[in-house]
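About this split. The held-out portion is used to measure sequence recovery: a designer receives only the structure tokens and must propose an amino acid at every position. Recovery is the fraction of positions where the proposal matches the reference. Here is one held-out target exactly as it appears in the evaluation file.
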């Protein structure tokens, strides 16, 4: 799969995760946040801004197929387990459908990590 298609795969996964009720955002990995902070571009007035798919990672699985990692921030007042399960199911369905549309039927595993619970005063 080309870089462009992998980027599209990340976008599909991010869109699916963000559509789940109770998900307030995606949390980029520390390495990506540090890289963005260390090298802000002149056109970006917000050096800590990251793309919506920054909390998504897609790797080829050792036995074939894809392994998708989703790092999400949840809303306060929701059961984290229920929301994480919903994210898992929605991302898996969306990525599988996307791959099927490309005639690339492959196994997809999804790992969901809840990085924090956003409270009302976090500004969401």
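Reference sequence for scoring:
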């Amino acid at each position: 799969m080309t870089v462009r298609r992998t980027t599209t795969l990340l976008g599909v996964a991010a869109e699916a995760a963000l559509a789940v009720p109770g998900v307030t955002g995606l949390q980029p990995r520390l390495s990506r946040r540090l890289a963005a902070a260390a090298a802000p571009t002149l056109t970006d007035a917000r050096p800590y801004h990251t793309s919506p798919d920054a909390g998504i990672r897609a790797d080829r699985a050792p036995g074939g197929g894809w392994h998708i990692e989703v790092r999400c921030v949840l809303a306060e007042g929701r059961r984290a387990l229920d929301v994480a399960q919903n994210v898992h199911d929605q991302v898996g369905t969306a990525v599988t459908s996307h791959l099927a549309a490309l005639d690339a039927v492959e196994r997809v595993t999804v790992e969901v990590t809840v990085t924090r619970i956003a409270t009302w005063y976090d500004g969401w």
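Annotator remark: Residues 80-101 form the longest helix (22 residues).
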